[in-house]
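Quick log. Single chain, no ligands specified.
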Amino acid sequence: MKRCVKFGAIAGFALGTLIFIGYIITSWWVCTTLLDCPGHWLPYLLIFAIGTTITTILGATTAFILRGLYEFTRVDG
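-> predicted structure:
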């Protein structure tokens, strides 16, 4: 069970990293055309950290639940 949860956490971290790097790049691109944008990179880093943490937790939780359901419904003994 622990191996499955670790895999889910790693998958969630990887997915969160991809999603929020895309978010940061898109935000930066949009902000290059606007006059009023954050003057510092800290808001982007904060959103990245929060989002990656949430997706890591969601990945581990999903893997835990799915593994538990698999064990519960297993028919091969």
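Residues 2-71 form one domain.
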